[in-house]
Amino acid sequence: MFARYEGTAYTLTGVNTSDTDQTVPFWFPIAGDYLEELHGGSLNLNNVPASNEVVLTIPSHYGRIWTSQEFGTLPFRRAGGISPSSHRA
Phi and psi at residue 6, in whole multiples of 5°? Predict the structure, then answer.
């Protein structure tokens, strides 16, 4: 698990290099909604309370990246501080 802060924005990255899915407890320091940046949808975390245990599942040989919604407005911040609107492919 790796985490980065930028003001009230928070990004958590979980990496699993094992052969089986891993379930881990985590306590987000900032309450709010978290976008799962790789696949989103049902993997997003909504209404996460600050400092309460959240159980996260990281698939085998893969990872997850969750980023808080900064100030309740678009855009979500991506890992490394790159927002979707400023990212160029």
Answer: -145, 100
Residue with tokens 């928070």: 10
Residue range(s) defining the domain that contains residue 49 = 2-72
Q: Tell me, yes or no, whether 82 lies in a domain.
A: no
Instruction: State the CATH number of the domain containing residue 8.
Output: 2.60.40.1180
pLDDT (tens digit, 0 to 9) for every residue of the chain, 89 residues total?
999 988 888 999 999 999 999 999 999 999 999 999 999 899 999 999 999 999 999 999 999 999 998 643 334 444 444 444 433 33
Task: Give the chain's domain count.
Answer: 1
pTM of the predicted structure, to 2 decimals? 0.74
Q: Is 44 helix (H, G, I), strand (E, B) or coil?
A: coil
- 78 lies in some domain: no
**How far apart (Å, rounded) are the C-alpha atoms in residues 30 and 28?**
6
Contact 21, 72 (CB under 8 A): no
